[in-house]
Amino acid sequence: MCRLDPHVTLLDTPDQFQRVELSIVCRDFEQAHRLQSLLNVLQLIKGAIFGADTELAILQVLWEKGEANRRQITDVLYAGGGEAHYATVQNLLGRLERKGFARHVREGNVLVFAATVDRDELIRRRLQGLADKLCGGAMAPLVMNLVRAQPLSEEDVDQLYAFLRDQKKKRKGPASTR
After folding, report:
1. Domain that holds residue 168
2. pLDDT tens sequence across 24-35
């Protein structure tokens, strides 16, 4: 059995607003290798899901605050930052709007931004996009490759079975109670 020892470092810059380092402690070299492979795959998926870390940092501000103007977002991400940081946030907000992840309303002379998707919806959209690109739209190969990269713990398997049973019930409808 392997154990992960996480170490989380919170940074002030949006380029790396949070760093998680995991130490892998295993008695078995093969298990350690499989776990490292899974972590590498998860890093790739994180990039595919969230895109640029700065875009994710802006979405996190919007999720936390509900809504914010460009100056408020800049102050959170670049405390004491100047006009270049303000322009960066403005450009990133425009990109998020074009992607459909944020919207704005005008309040007087100020644009106020809000996220249009929650974290789970963003993950669903990006994973589906990844499945479309890599697997012709099918999610099963994506999930199976994640599992192959690192076998699931008994608890993970139980959670996955429970989730799949719920999904199956939803597809069959209320008439089926099995």
Report:
1. 1-173
2. 566 666 766 666
